[in-house]
Design goal:
The complex is a heterodimer. Chain A is 79% helix and 0% strand. Chain A is an all-alpha fold. In chain A, helix 2 packs across helix 4. The longest helix of chain A is centred in the N-terminal third of the chain and has 37 residues. Chain A is elongated. Chain B has a single domain, classed as Orthogonal Bundle (MetI-like fold). Chain B is flat and about 75 Å long. Classes of the chains: A mainly alpha, B mainly alpha. The interface between A and B is large, with 38 and 38 residues.
Chain lengths: 225, 224
């Protein structure tokens, strides 16, 4: 293997990978928590609340995620000084906004698919709205949410690369920095272009993470339906 | 620090021509990519549904590679890695080509599912009437399966339109790049982001409204 490979690989794995993992972990957790709450609230027949959540869902599902990233990274600070976030945090927030909208929509469907008798039986046992949903309805709905969750995870891992656009150090940014370093003249770089090898390796990394998960999502979909 | 007053109207009227050019470029890239993704999806989806040897397997590989790697990385591959092999493409070509390849992969799955949903009896009826496999496909499978695939393929086109915003990374002057470049100079960040938000949401809702219209127009007779 040529000499340049080892430092490039080390940089991408040591500096880039943690960034990707951090953004993905925050985005998945935040999307799941906020999305499930919003989706459950969406099943309540109270028009102003429904309209508000609908607006949130439609806006963040409709916007290109990159535009949401820009809104968080450039828009929030120019609206208020206190709302300034770093590139990785901005990307995480944008992905939570997008992901929670996706989850809310899926949750609404899953909660709605639980038969009415389940609500009635839980009510007969003396559960209030909160207890009914947290102990009876949501545990059943979560089973149906499993396949969309796995797809969401894949989408979020892939879209975490959007942090690169605003300079967040994740896998793609790490790869791009190494690509530029190698392309610059010695002694900094080699004056050689290795874009295909570097980005190809990054593509394989993403594929190895995503492919088993998309298979899993398809499998769960078949089993749970 | 005093922030400049938010004035959306001034922003839009002062930069009208540039913004319109940007929107036009977004629409142009989207149109090229959607037309290509339609053709790719139709042909490869049919190949997959009918298990045509070699083509079917190669399509499966193509679909899995595109689905399981970030689109931003695919754009980087075309823009930064292809020149290594002497293939230098201009920004416009990279723009429509990359989203077309992406959309084509998703669309071939949409069409495959649509064609597979056509009952084998319909095709048998076609063969019984003496149609060749190709004319059975064109006269039976395509009109029925194509309609079934329509809503999901329009959803893919919606994603294609949204993904054209990624051409910001290669500096192609579509809407996102144009609006952000203007705001870099004038510091009218919020105005620029408002324009982007409104235009993309309008494009997306127009396309998703077209799903409902087309669905009712093209509904199969028996589905009432």
């Amino acid at each position: 293997m040529p000499d340049w490979v080892e430092p490039v690989a080390r940089y991408i794995l040591q500096e880039g990978l943690p960034g990707t993992l951090r953004v993905s972990a925050i985005a998945v957790t935040g999307s799941a928590l906020i999305g499930i709450v919003l989706g459950t609230l969406l099943t309540i027949r109270f028009l102003p609340l429904q309209a508000l959540i609908r607006l949130y869902v439609e806006v963040f599902r409709g916007l290109p995620i990159l535009v949401t990233v820009f809104i968080v990274y450039f828009g929030l600070p120019s609206a208020s000084r206190e709302l300034e976030f770093g590139p990785l945090s901005s990307a995480s927030i944008a992905l939570v906004l997008w992901g929670s909208a996706q989850v809310a929509e899926a949750t609404r469907g899953a909660v709605g698919s639980i038969p009415r008798e389940q609500h009635e039986a839980a009510a007969a046992l003396g559960f209030g709205w909160g207890g009914r949903h947290s102990f009876v309805i949501l545990p059943q709905a979560l089973r149906r949410l499993l396949p969309p969750f796995v797809s969401l995870l894949v989408n979020i891992v892939q879209n975490s690369t959007l942090a690169q656009v605003i300079g967040g150090l994740e896998i793609l940014e790490a790869a791009e920095r190494q690509n530029e370093r190698l392309a610059s003249a010695p002694p900094i770089g080699l004056g050689e272009i290795h874009a295909f090898e570097i980005f190809g390796a990054v593509a394989i990394m993403f594929f190895l993470i995503s492919f088993p998960l998309t298979r899993l999502a398809a499998y769960l979909e078949r089993r749970l339906v | 620090m005093v922030l400049a007053a938010y004035d959306l109207w001034a922003f839009v009227s002062e930069n009208r021509d540039e913004l319109l050019d940007g929107l036009l470029n977004t629409l142009k890239v989207s149109a090229f990519a959607i037309a290509g993704a339609f053709a790719i999806g139709l042909v490869l989806g049919a190949a997959r549904a009918h298990r045509i040897p070699v083509v079917s397997q190669l399509t499966a590989v193509y679909v899995e590679v595109i689905r399981n790697t970030p689109i931003l990385l695919q754009i980087f591959m075309i823009f930064f890695a292809l020149p290594q092999f002497g293939i230098l493409l201009d920004q416009f070509t990279v723009a429509w080509l990359s989203v077309m390849i992406w959309g084509g992969a998703f669309n071939s799955e949409n069409f495959r599912a649509g064609f597979l949903a056509v009952s084998y009896r319909y095709r048998e009826a076609g063969y019984a009437l003496g149609f060749s496999p190709l004319s059975t496909f064109l006269n039976v499978t395509l009109p029925i399966g194509g309609r079934i695939a329509l809503p999901s393929s329009i959803n893919t086109y919606i994603s294609v339109v949204k993904n054209t915003s990624l051409m910001f990374v290669i500096g192609y002057a579509e809407l996102t790049t144009t609006a952000l470049n203007i705001s870099n100079l004038s510091l009218e960040t919020l105005e620029a982001l408002t324009v982007l938000g409104v235009v993309y949401l309008a494009l997306v809702s127009a396309l998703s409204a077209s799903i409902r219209v087309l669905e009712s127009r093209l509904a199969l007779p028996e589905s009432g």
